[in-house]
Design a protein that fits this description.
Elements: H1 9-26, H2 30-38, E1 45-49, E2 52-56, E3 67-69, H3 80-92, E4 95-98, H4 101-106, E5 114-116, H5 128-135, E6 141-144, H6 153-163, E7 172-175, H7 181-193, E8 200-204, H8 209-214, E9 218-221, H9 230-237, E10 241-245, H10 251-254, E11 262-264, H11 269-280, H12 283-292
Parallel strand pairs: 3-4, 4-5, 6-7, 6-9, 7-8, 9-10, 10-11
Antiparallel strand pairs: 1-2
Helix pairs in contact: 6-7, 6-11
């Protein structure tokens, strides 16, 4: 819908975020503004007055002009504070930014204006020459995320255990912060029970993600749910052949199944094992998926 200025509301929202990005770059400590914007992953409120930007998590009840940004899949509950945010703060906002088209459809009648705006890609995609030079050096399966039940790493372990004997030269590396000690210990015990102690490696948090991705051949996303899985788009930008659960939001809007990745039935461990095996067994398929990604 076009306003008096001739700009669509969606363009206005995009312009707002461009201005916010410029403000973020001007801050000496970007983490500070990031924390204020997303407030622990719940939401952000941006008020506008005389062309100036103010960020924060609390908004005066008289505020009718602002943007709320949702980082999670809207369909999933995320605790009491998030419930209040969605029911109160979002209804006061000028617009609500969500992570996917699915989320926009799910909340289309709840808020005034809803715009899907996926996360930007922070890696420059590989060129054809770079991809070809790296392909022969790539090996193993890569997974990434907080060591937390939401990431579903136990399903990756079980899936790999079903095919490990067929591919004795393949291993699995997992990068991520150990957020849950209890869950991490469960994963270690599951790996031990499957007899895969020498096949799985936890690398902890890393800053050289592009280098790590470019040394691995396959990326696996085994999460229960995501808002917009940045790591999936980053893995594709780095030329990895990706295999992912068809979780509610994210993969189906990033991957074209069979062309630049493989999508399997959500939370089906046997299907995940089959998807991984299909890609591991076929170097031409891995090359094609990674190149098209």
């Amino acid at each position: 819908r076009r306003g008096k200025s001739g700009f669509t509301e969606e363009n206005k929202v995009k312009q707002i975020w461009r201005e916010l990005y410029k403000a973020a770059k001007a801050v000496q400590k970007p983490r500070d503004i990031s924390e204020r914007i997303y407030a622990g992953g719940v939401a952000a409120a941006i008020e506008f007055s005389n062309g100036k930007i103010y960020t924060g998590v609390s908004v005066d009840t008289s505020c009718t002009l602002g943007i709320c940004a949702e980082r999670n899949a809207m369909i999933y509950p995320h605790g009491r504070n998030n419930f209040i945010t969605k029911r109160v703060l979002y209804k006061m906002a000028y617009a609500v930014q969500v992570m996917s088209r699915h989320d926009k459809a799910w909340v289309r009648n709840r808020y005034k204006r809803v715009y899907p705006m996926p996360n930007p890609l922070r890696f420059e995609p590989l060129t054809r020459e770079q991809y070809d030079s790296l392909f022969a050096k790539r090996k193993d399966i890569f997974a990434c995320g907080r060591i937390h039940p939401q990431k579903g790493f136990e399903k990756l372990i079980i899936a790999f255990s079903k095919i490990a004997e067929r591919y004795p030269d393949w291993n699995v590396d997992i990068v991520g912060l150990k957020e849950s000690e209890v869950y991490f210990n469960r994963l270690v015990e599951l790996i031990r029970q499957c007899g895969l102690e020498n096949r799985f490696h936890f690398l902890g948090p890393r800053k050289d993600m592009d280098t790590i991705m470019q040394s691995h051949s396959i990326f696996c996303l085994s999460s229960q749910h995501e808002g917009f899985p940045n790591v999936l788009s980053e893995a594709m930008a780095n030329g990895m052949a990706c295999v992912s659960f068809d979780i509610v939001t994210g993969p189906s809007e990033i991957i074209i199944d069979g062309l630049d990745g493989i999508i399997v039935e959500d939370q089906n461990v046997d299907a995940l094992a089959d998807g991984l095996s299909t890609v591991m067994a076929n170097a031409e398929l891995r090359y094609s998926l990674g190149l098209n990604a």
